[in-house]
Design goal:
The chain has helices spanning about 20-35, 50-55, 90-100, 105-115, 130-135, 150-160, 200-215, 230-235, 280-295, 305-310, 315-320, 335-340, 350-360, 375-385, 405-415, 420-435, 445-460, and strands at about 10-15, 40-45, 65, 120-125, 140-145, 175, 185, 215-220, 240-245, 270-275, 300, 325, 340-345, 365, 385-390. The protein has 2 domains: about 10-145 and about 195-245 and about 440-460, Rossmann fold, CATH 3.40.50.2000; about 270-435, 3-Layer(aba) Sandwich (Rossmann fold). It is about 40% helix and about 15% strand. With about 450 residues, it is α/β, with parallel strands linked by helices. Strands 3-2-1-4-5-8-9 form a 7-stranded parallel β-sheet, with helices on both faces. A 6-stranded parallel β-sheet has the order 12-11-10-13-14-15, with helices on both faces. The chain has a two-stranded antiparallel ribbon with strand order 6-7. About 45% of the residues are buried. The two termini are about 30 Å apart. The chain binds uridine-5'-diphosphate. The site of uridine-5'-diphosphate has 20 residues, from α1, α12 and α13. GO terms for molecular function: UDP-glucosyltransferase activity. It holds the Pfam family UDPGT. This is Glycosyltransferase.
């Protein structure tokens, strides 16, 4: 049953997620929330991403429209329809650029939809900048789905508008963010946020930013109680408003209670995973393996396929038998984090992973790698205080190469130490706030989504 209200049943919403798991998964849950308001939902995707979406939404009435991904896109290997599968993340913005070739077909399908049943609004990912033009042609309000939290958006905006990085003498010099003086950042924190300013893909980045600022507002996977200061700050400015409607993972249906799966052994288990995009060198993987091995911790380590090949021949799994397990396939991370025995998460701090960890009360050992993860790590460690960082000695949140003994020290601290105790206590408190935010009718996120729908649906009538 995916509806509990008919308040908005005459309304129809189009969702269009970007092609990576970290952007698709939250939008699947947004679809569920809209269905629960009684709305009709159509989701656009590419043919290659359709099976994952269809399977995830099999119990719902979401209509899925898939468009073939361009096969002749410069630099993108044929068959790659998700940034998770790119041979290198340096192709990320080329991938974004390639999506624009889908525009004519998306518009043809949208036209057909609008004729069959009026569409109230469209929510599309910030990386799909050209969808603003498509929505505008058909007279549809377009909201941007932002994959970031408001702390990161506000800090980035303040740093760029006030040109704070220009004054830094080195990449790891701490600079005070004048609009939020309790926050300090380094140039390192921003090094992987933007493409090379002189490279060919900078143009796409600028188009994306322009399209966001000309859209109606942002849907953000976060909640008011987590980052009031930044949400209020943003919404007090004359810029497109943010609507925090999360944590979206809490809209996922509860699966049948399962027995603890065989691969989780013992209690007090550390979960280790670096998301779907980060590239970890084999030298670094070997240090992680040694750190886990020497720490004697119980652990569950999820590796991407490419990575697993580089450590297997070392006989690592044999050495940690009985207390550690390596999984070499896609797992359902939210289900893992829900197990009581998972008591720590060594994470790259992708925003979804960080938020999921918070929602399930699991403290984080932050190891940011790419994109805006260094800023997420600052938020997790310094702002919300639900985690520690992997290299406690570095000022910058981008620790670079970490040796096994440093890693072992911090993971022991997280799992057994005094600082670990404090962040564990705090994360459980924040998890409660997250649940309350998502509560039907009363929760702040529930109410925010209702307000947004009311505003947009009334506008269209
Ligand atoms: N995820 C998962 N299984 C995996 C790896 C990732 O379910 O084996 C999910 C994870 O729960 C999260 C998303 O994929 O919802 C990853 O998003 P995140 O923002 O954490 O990182 P990204 O992959 O975008 O770097």
């Amino acid at each position: 049953m995916d509806t509990n209200s008919s308040k908005f049943s005459i309304h129809h919403v189009v969702l269009f997620p970007f092609m990576s798991k970290g952007h698709i998964i939250p939008i699947l849950n947004l679809a569920r929330l809209l269905l629960r308001r009684g709305m009709a939902v159509t989701m656009f995707t590419t043919t290659g991403n359709r099976p994952f979406i269809s399977e995830s939404l099999a119990d719902t009435s979401v209509c899925i429209i898939d468009i073939p991904f361009p096969q002749n896109a410069p630099e993108i290997p044929p068959g790659v329809e998700s940034t998770d599968l790119l041979p290198s993340m340096s192709l990320f913005f080329s991938f974004c650029k390639a999506t624009k070739q889908m525009q004519p077909m998306v518009e043809e399908k949208l036209q057909g939809l609008v004729q069959a049943q009026p569409v109230s609004f469209m929510v599309s990912d910030g990386f799909l900048w050209w969808t603003l033009e498509s929505a505008t042609k058909l007279g549809l309000p377009r909201l941007v789905f932002s994959g970031m939290n408001q702390f990161v958006s506000c800090v980035s905006r303040a740093v760029f508008e006030d040109r704070l990085l220009d004054g830094a003498e080195s990449d790891d010099e701490l600079i005070t963010v004048t609009r939020f003086p309790w926050i300090k950042v380094t140039r390192n924190d921003f090094n992987t946020v933007m493409p090379n300013p002189n490279g060919p893909t900078m143009e796409v980045f600028i188009d994306q930013v322009k399209s966001m600022t000309n859209s109606l507002g942002f849907i953000v996977n976060s909640f008011y109680e987590l980052e009031k200061v930044y949400i209020d700050n943003w919404n007090s400015e004359k810029i497109p408003k943010v609507w925090c409607v999360g944590p979206l993972c809490l809209a996922e249906p509860e699966l049948e209670p399962q027995k603890k799966p065989f691969w989780i052994q013992g209690c007090s288990v550390l979960y280790v995973a670096f998301g779907s995009q980060a590239e970890v060198s084999s030298k670094q993987l070997q240090q992680i393996a040694k750190g886990l091995q020497e720490s004697k911790a119980n652990f569950l380590w999820v590796l991407r396929k490419k990575e697993s090949e580089s450590i297997l021949d070392e006989g690592f799994e044999e050495k940690v038998k009985g207390r550690g397990i390596v999984v070499k396939q896609w797992v359902d991370q939210r289900q893992i984090l829900k197990y009581q025995c998972i008591e720590g998460f060594l994470s790259h701090c992708g925003w979804n992973s960080a938020l999921e960890s918070i929602c399930y009360g699991v403290p984080i050992l932050a190891w940011p790698m790419i994109a805006e993860q260094a800023l997420n790590a600052r938020m997790v460690v310094e702002e919300i205080k639900v985690g520690l960082r992997v290299d406690s000695t570095c000022n910058g949140m981008k620790p670079g190469f970490v040796k096994w003994d440093g890693l072992m020290k911090m993971l022991k601290e997280l799992m057994e130490g005094e600082m670990g105790k404090q962040v564990r206590k705090r994360v459980k408190e924040v998890a409660e706030l997250a649940k309350m935010a998502m509560a039907d009718s009363d929760g702040s996120s529930w109410q925010t989504l209702d307000m947004l729908i009311n505003e947009l649906c009334n506008k269209k009538q």
